[in-house]
Design brief:
Layout: H1 3-16, E1 22-28, H2 35-45, H3 81-91, E2 96-106, E3 116-125, E4 129-130, E5 134-147, E6 150-164, H4 186-193, E7 198-202, E8 208-209, E9 224-228, E10 232-241, E11 253-260, E12 265-271, E13 283-290, E14 296-308, E15 311-316
Parallel strand pairs: 12-14
Antiparallel strand pairs: 1-3, 2-6, 3-5, 4-5, 5-6, 7-8, 7-9, 10-11, 10-13, 11-12, 13-14, 14-15
Length: 320
């Protein structure tokens, strides 16, 4: 074992002694759960569920972290453990950081007037990891949110603290980014692999929804089934991407918000037409495009409205 490897192993062992140490103890939310913040959140998310308004309103579960955030002035009472942990990483050359993912668990709804407290802990420090960004450690913190003595939810947040890679990796064929598949949307991606665009439908109020969610954003029901989209749609809105360039893409290209016949909207690429010819209202039809041996994505081919024999017909448009 080389000296460099020994030092790295010693660093990892030292970092893991911080597991279980507090980040914050009995922190207090700066504001009680309140209707104004709920309204702003719902407007930003476009969530019109009646569950979040009226005398029996609850807060959207995904707002859990919002009630614990310290704002620009921060929170007082944070322990030194987190700062010490990050100081050790900085000293070892792991001076860069990137957030990787978060997980939330909900035990009961929050309601206006609830005052939250929270405790934070350094839950885990990974083994030394080498990524395309560089080499470092994944740090996971867990925040337990309470109202009184009742645990109402848990928020886990994970970051990678790393030393930036000094040398560029050997050139590799550019690949499209992989979709993030989780337990909530796995059924959608299984359908895509079978060249089927599956849409969730609430079995209580029959509202279709996309993207896939655990519950209905119209009536709040957790019961649902799926329908297969016909593939017919129109361009509801679009942007043309010029910058920043990414090796797997060839700008400029159009990214469109497609409104399907089923009443839901999906973001995808428009193919078969130059980017500067895409327009709002353009009719499109679903196709499935393979980008490599692993990745299949739904895309939409432009259709052209043309006049023939006094009537209107559609034909597929091929890019010149």
């Amino acid at each position: 074992m080389t000296r460099g490897t020994t030092v790295t192993d010693e660093l990892g062992a030292r970092l893991r002694t911080y597991e279980g140490r507090a980040v914050a103890a009995t922190g207090r939310g700066k504001d009680p759960v309140n209707a104004a913040m709920i309204r702003h959140w719902c407007e930003a998310m476009g969530d019109t569920s009646p569950a979040y308004t009226g005398p029996d309103a609850i807060a959207p579960p995904t707002m859990l972290q919002a009630w614990t955030m310290g704002g620009l002035s921060g929170h007082s009472g944070r322990s030194q453990a987190y700062d010490e942990l990050f100081a050790l990483l900085d000293e070892a050359g792991c001076t860069s950081i990137v957030a990787t993912d978060c997980e939330q668990e909900y035990l009961r709804p929050l309601r206006p007037g609830d005052e939250v407290t929270f405790d934070g802990v350094i839950e885990s420090v990974s083994q030394r990891k080498t990524t395309k960004l560089g080499t470092g450690y994944f740090i996971t913190t867990r925040t337990d949110v309470r109202v009184g003595q009742d645990l109402v939810g848990t928020h886990r947040f994970r970051v990678l603290k790393y030393a930036p890679a000094r040398r560029k990796p050997a050139p590799q064929p550019a690949r499209r980014p992989r979709p993030v598949v989780n337990r909530d949307n796995a059924g959608f991606w299984e359908g895509v692999e079978q060249h089927r665009l599956l849409v969730q439908r609430c079995t209580d109020c029959a509202t279709s929804r996309f993207p896939w969610l655990p519950g209905c954003n119209h009536c709040g029901s957790l019961d649902w089934d799926t329908i297969e989209a016909s593939g017919e749609g129109t361009v509801y809105s679009y942007v043309v991407m010029h910058h920043p360039p990414f090796p797997a893409f060839d700008p400029p290209y159009a990214v469109a918000l497609i409104e399907l016949a089923e009443g839901i909207r999906i973001i995808s690429n428009v193919i078969g037409l130059p980017h500067d010819k895409v327009r709002i209202g353009l009719p499109v039809r679903l196709e499935f495009q393979s980008y490599d041996d692993e990745l299949v994505l739904p895309v939409f081919r432009a259709l052209e409205e043309a006049t023939a024999g006094g009537g209107r017909v559609r034909k597929e448009v091929e890019a010149p």
